[in-house]
Amino acid sequence: MADCCTQRKKLCYCVLLCFLVAGITGGAIGIYKWRYTGLNRWHGKGSTPNFQKIIQERCDTYTQQIRPDSRSRDCQGITQAFMSAFISKDPCKATKEDYQPLIDLAYPTVPCGKAVFWSKTKELAREYAKGRGLLTLEDTLLGFLADGLSWCGEPGSSDLNYQSCPDWKKDCSTNYFSVFWEVLSERFAENACGTVQVVLNGSIENAFDKMSIFGRVEAHNLRSVVMLQAWLVHDPGKPPRDSCSGSSIKELESILNGRNVRFTCRDNLR
């Protein structure tokens, strides 16, 4: 009888231990899955590794080597303002006001007549600008800092989300990456004066895309003191698919006419 009770106790202990191990394992797996799927729920790529360090280093490089005349800029303050704009916040609830402290520290100013805009021609536009002493948005301090990077945070967390960030089309348009470039582009356009350029891709069907940053933001924020020259570039090995007489360019011209912005267009810039 005693042996039987002892065996029952052992069996109970074994069953209890199994339940305990299963509970701990299941809980750990559940927490892991919850955290992983939570951080991986967006469709865009995650934050760039070492994001804060890269921002700080780029700021130092820009102010000390690329534009020594901006050496008075507070890179530590700029880096902190950048991080504070989105850390611990819902990545789909960005506002322009979140970036205002950052913009105040490094307003994207460009000398009159030196601005170059682009749409689907980034590298060519930058090459075009560099060869003529002109400046694209990515040549301003904040544009230089953020170029090629991605970033987002999580509500209540001081960490960045390195797994995924919201995609503008698939998740939400009010994400911190998209709103940053919209705010910066808006200021860049508002600051433009004199004769400025835009480099557009004439090898695609709509050289002027009204849903691009240039189409949605920059074209609508140019002032009447601007003369905009559009250059339609074409791939040498491909036939042109749009021209200065095309409907998309006419749409751009209509927007500019409504803002009293003078406009010219030239085809076949190679």
List keywords for this structure.
single chain, 270 residues, alpha/beta, ADP Ribosyl Cyclase, Chain A, domain 1, 9 helices, 6 strands, 45% helix, globular
Walk me through the structure.
The chain is α/β, with parallel strands linked by helices and 270 residues long. It has one domain (43-269): Up-down Bundle (ADP Ribosyl Cyclase, Chain A, domain 1). The protein has helices at 2-39, 51-66, 75-86, 100-105, 122-130, 141-146, 176-191, 213-218, 247-258, and strands at 44-45, 116-119, 164-165, 194-201, 226-233, 262-269. Homodimer. It is a single-pass type II membrane protein.
- The first-level CATH class is given as Mainly Alpha
Helix content: 40-55%
Identify the CATH homologous superfamily.
Answer: ADP Ribosyl Cyclase, Chain A, domain 1
Radius of gyration (CA) equals 26 Å
Total number of helical segments?
A: 9
Mean pLDDT: 89
Low-confidence stretches: 25-36
Q: Determine the oligomeric state from the structure.
A: single chain
Q: What's the end-to-end separation, in Å?
A: 98 Å
Summary?
This protein has helices at residues 2-39, 51-66, 75-86, 100-105, 122-130, 141-146, 176-191, 213-218, 247-258; strands at residues 44-45, 116-119, 164-165, 194-201, 226-233, 262-269. The protein has 270 residues and is α/β, with parallel strands linked by helices. The chain has one domain: ADP Ribosyl Cyclase, Chain A, domain 1 (Up-down Bundle), CATH 1.20.82.10.
